């Protein structure tokens, strides 16, 4: 920053040098489910205690807002490091926006001075588009790499391609002339492990050998994944979306979006998917994209030195992540807006759209699935849906809501048990046990042995004349000469009934294993397992309705649409609706989910069934609890996150929530001109608060401002090194004018430049409903409570979270500060 003296609305602008947050992963705690102990002091360390910068707002009983500005002492020198944030602290949104406005104002004032300044101005203006372009390019390339590698390693569990080791099963047989239509996946180039090891392609010996090798590879991949995560990047485990939501709300988790996390998450995501665990790669791809956005933001000073601006890039990156995960650029933008972003200005919407576009373009260029589509399970239906089908669609929505409510409660209960028992101390053993159980049970059932994305593709696909799946084993009464593009409803054959039983077993297996898998110490997404559960249920319902319509086409509900020989019911459509309903029940997404699913299918015709099912699943799920799975995990991990979707309807006042309360020690405060350096250092050493209000005197209690613990420490250390005569008995002055001191007194230390002259304040009679709204909309970390200008106490973000838990009849210790 320039050395000129900059001030605006009571702040000395040159004191804001942000600290580089690309710290190494040695600082990291163990795992995404890291338990943070925030309960360290009466005032909660003021974890959220940086104050709002800019105008001094005072909420009175009438709700009026008054403002006042203060000039700073222009003789103070800027202090490097002041205004930055420690790990596990919350940023001050208002201060960061003020910093950005001041930076923008300074660049605009200089751009006409020279060609170089004009170039810098243009670079600054375009840096936002450059960083989201780089993020989109990297996200698309990494997603393509992960898709290709995961497909190859998944097929490695069953066999290997001798003609080209880098080919997966499907690619291996593409060039073979010896495949048949019925057995298109069998070719001499592809060898199962039984053929390679014991030389048998069929028989019980072959089956047992393939079974053993399947379990061996699954355990190997799972062990390697959890070992890499534990040793190199503990933050690479889990979905990442709960932490991304928390970071986007302003929380600092250093290293969570670093280069080590990106590298290990990319590698272990491939291993985790290939191991056959009941998890997906879509959620972790959002984390991968946000890591790319965070790393590229350090190339541009506009974003590297401003935490609020950096979060605009991360919002765009999360849109790019969903774009490449589902091949749904518009759905990605809506997902970022609806589900993860806390602050989403209009320019972030445009940049999110552009990042999603670039990422989707790169992934389409790579074409990882060889089908010229962005996802494996792209389908197109040509049959319209009929009005009577809304009833089974709504039933699927009810199932999705019930599944979501059950999963959230069961998974949170298991994760809480993992944290509170010895079992959680052995993450490698847990992953091995879950992988072993999954592999042993999954292999005998062809639908659970399949890669989950392949399973969804098979369930979504409509039965055409070229389908050889047992799900399409209908008794065919068609004439061979008849055009087969539009196949009528037919009676189910033995293969269909057998497939239904296998799908029912697969449904039970997926429901149970997903509860225990989500949250283990490997990268694990929830989108694909939830969609698979819904797709299985939907396909079963679709076949049932199809057979009902065939055998009872004279019923009044079928009579108008389902004539004999008509193609009336599409079971694949039911699978798609069920998948959306179950994913909606777990995440409580609505608009973005519908858009993602119809971008998957390429048809606008089915929006109404999707909307009906998704809204029904949300209503049913909300009846059991309004939290989605990500909010539940945020609460479980104790992150200070104020959910904008929660309503606060209680009639409490600020005085009821503020600290200190009765029987508490008095609030630790500084006075503006009668404390020494030793006094302040002793207060810092004896307390663990994160900031201190500054008052005129102990007698008056009139509020002057707010000073952060970190800023005080840095300023005193800097003064001892750079200023002569600063000793322990030096008077510390926060006032504009230094008071007169005896001649023999040591040189005073002026710290007015680090003082927030306009902390956000409310009166003691302000309703908490208004206070909560202020915290949400301004992103505050704390506000001070006054009465007639006299300081009474302080309210932090965690005070509000604790109070909201208490009003909901919950134990705050059970959801926070574990």
TrEMBL record:
Keywords: Antiport, ATP-binding, CBS domain, Cell membrane, Chloride, Endosome, Glycoprotein, Ion transport, Lysosome, Membrane, Nucleotide-binding, Repeat, Transmembrane, Transmembrane helix, Transport
Record-linked PROSITE patterns: CBS
Lineage, opening ranks: Eukaryota, Metazoa, Chordata, Craniata, Vertebrata
Record organism: Panthera leo
Membrane spanning stretches: 126-150, 214-236, 256-277, 284-301, 313-337, 386-408, 428-447, 499-520, 532-553, 573-598
Protein name as catalogued: Chloride channel protein
Signal peptide location: none
CBS domain span: 658-722, 755-812
Gene Ontology MF terms in the entry: ATP binding; chloride:proton antiporter activity; PDZ domain binding; voltage-gated chloride channel activity; volume-sensitive chloride channel activity
Gene Ontology CC terms: axon terminus; early endosome membrane; external side of plasma membrane; GABA-ergic synapse; glutamatergic synapse; Golgi apparatus; late endosome membrane; lysosomal membrane
Pfam family, one: Voltage_CLC
Localization (cell): Cell membrane; Early endosome membrane; Late endosome membrane; Lysosome membrane
Membrane topology value: Multi-pass membrane protein
InterPro entries: CBS_dom (IPR000644), CBS_dom_sf (IPR046342), Cl-channel_core (IPR014743), ClC (IPR001807), ClC3 (IPR002245)
Matches recorded under SMART domains: CBS (SM00116)
GO BP terms: adult locomotory behavior; negative regulation of cell volume; phagocytosis, engulfment; photoreceptor cell maintenance; positive regulation of reactive oxygen species biosynthetic process; synaptic transmission, GABAergic; synaptic transmission, glutamatergic; synaptic vesicle lumen acidification
UniProt function note: Strongly outwardly rectifying, electrogenic H(+)/Cl(-)exchanger which mediates the exchange of chloride ions against protons. The CLC channel family contains both chloride channels and proton-coupled anion transporters that exchange chloride or another anion for protons. The presence of conserved gating glutamate residues is typical for family members that function as antiporters.
Family label: Belongs to the chloride channel (TC 2.A.49) family. ClC-3/CLCN3 subfamily.
């Amino acid at each position: 920053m320039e050395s000129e003296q900059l001030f605006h609305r009571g702040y000395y602008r040159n004191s804001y040098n942000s600290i580089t947050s690309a710290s190494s992963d040695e600082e990291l705690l163990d795992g995404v489910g890291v338990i943070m102990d925030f309960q360290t002091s009466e005032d909660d360390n003021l974890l959220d205690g940086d104050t709002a910068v800019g105008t001094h707002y005072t909420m009175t009983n009438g709700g009026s807002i008054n403002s006042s500005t203060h000039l700073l002492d222009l003789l103070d020198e800027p202090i490097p490091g002041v205004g930055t944030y420690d790990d596990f602290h919350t940023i001050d949104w208002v201060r960061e926006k003020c910093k950005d406005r001041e930076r923008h104002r300074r660049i605009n004032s200089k751009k006409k001075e020279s060609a170089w300044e004009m170039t810098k101005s243009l670079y600054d203006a375009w840096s936002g588009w450059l960083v989201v372009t780089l993020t989109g390019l990297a996200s698309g390339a990494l997603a393509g790499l992960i898709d290709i590698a995961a497909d190859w390693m998944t097929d490695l569990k069953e066999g290997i391609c001798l003609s080209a080791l880098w080919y997966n099963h499907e690619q291996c047989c593409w060039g073979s002339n010896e495949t048949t239509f019925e057995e298109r996946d069998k070719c001499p180039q592809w060898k199962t492990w039984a053929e390679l090891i014991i030389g048998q392609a069929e028989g019980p010996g072959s089956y047992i050998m393939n079974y053993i090798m399947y379990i061996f590879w699954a355990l190997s991949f799972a062990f390697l994944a959890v070992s890499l995560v534990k040793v190199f990047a503990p933050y690479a485990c889990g979905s990442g979306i709960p932490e991304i939501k928390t970071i986007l709300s302003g929380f600092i988790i250093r290293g969570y979006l670093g280069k080590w996390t990106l590298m290990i998450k990319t590698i272990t995501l491939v291993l985790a998917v290939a191991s056959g665990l009941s998890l997906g790669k879509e959620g972790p791809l959002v984390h991968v994209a946000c890591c790319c956005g965070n790393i590229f933001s350090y190339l541009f000073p506009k974003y590297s030195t401003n935490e609020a601006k950096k979060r605009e890039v991360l919002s765009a990156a999360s849109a790019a992540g969903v774009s490449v995960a589902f091949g749904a650029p518009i759905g990605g933008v809506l997902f970022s807006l609806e589900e993860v972003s806390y602050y989403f200005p209009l320019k972030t919407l445009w940049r999110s759209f552009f990042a999603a576009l670039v990422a989707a373009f790169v992934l389409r260029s790579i074409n990882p699935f060889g089908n010229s589509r962005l996802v494996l399970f792209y389908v197109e239906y040509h049959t319209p849906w009929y009005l009577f089908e809304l009833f089974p669609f709504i039933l699927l929505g009810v199932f999705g809501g019930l599944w979501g409510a059950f999963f959230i409660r069961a998974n949170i209960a298991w994760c809480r048990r993992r944290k509170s028992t010895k079992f959680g101390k052995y993450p490698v053993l847990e992953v091995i046990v879950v992988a072993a159980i999954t592999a042993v049970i999954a292999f005998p059932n062809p639908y659970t042995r399949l890669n989950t994305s392949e399973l969804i593709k098979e369930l979504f696909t409509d039965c055409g004349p070229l389908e050889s799946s047992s799900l399409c084993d209908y008794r065919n009464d068609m004439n061979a000469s008849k055009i087969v593009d539009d196949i009528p409803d037919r009676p189910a054959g033995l293969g269909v009934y057998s497939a239904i039983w296998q799908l029912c077993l697969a449904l039970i297996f997926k429901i149970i294993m997903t509860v225990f898998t989500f949250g283990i110490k490997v990268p694990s997404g929830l989108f694909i397992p939830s969609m698979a559960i819904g797709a299985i249920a939907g396909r079963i319902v679709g076949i049932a309705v199809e057979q009902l319509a065939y055998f009872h086409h004279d019923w009044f509900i079928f009579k108008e649409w389902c004539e004999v020989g008509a193609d009336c019911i599409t079971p694949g459509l039911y699978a798609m609706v069920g998948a959306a309903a179950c994913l909606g029940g777990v995440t409580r997404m609505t608009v973005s989910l519908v858009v993602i699913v119809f971008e998957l299918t390429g048809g606008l015709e089915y929006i109404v069934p999707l909307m009906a099912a998704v809204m029904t699943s949300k209503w049913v799920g909300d009846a059991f609890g309004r939290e989605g799975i990500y909010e539940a995990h945020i609460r479980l991990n104790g992150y200070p996150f104020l959910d904008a979707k929660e309503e606060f309807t209680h009639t409490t006042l600020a005085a009821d929530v503020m600290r200190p309360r009765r029987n508490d020690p008095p609030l630790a405060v500084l006075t503006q001109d009668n404390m020494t350096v030793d006094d302040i250092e002793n207060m810092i050493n004896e307390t663990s608060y994160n900031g201190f209000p500054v008052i005129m005197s102990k007698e008056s209690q009139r509020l002057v401002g707010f000073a952060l613990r970190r800023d005080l420490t840095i300023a005193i250390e800097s003064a001892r090194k750079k200023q002569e005569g600063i000793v322990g008995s030096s008077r510390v002055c926060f006032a504009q004018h230094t008071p007169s001191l005896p001649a023999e007194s040591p040189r005073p230390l002026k710290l007015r430049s680090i003082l927030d002259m306009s902390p956000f304040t409310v009166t003691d009679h302000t309703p908490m409903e208004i206070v909560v709204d202020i915290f949400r909309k301004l992103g505050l970390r704390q506000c001070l409570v006054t009465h007639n200008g006299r300081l009474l106490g302080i309210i932090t973000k965690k005070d509000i979270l604790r109070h909201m838990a208490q009003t909901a009849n919950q134990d705050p210790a059970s959801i926070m500060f574990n």
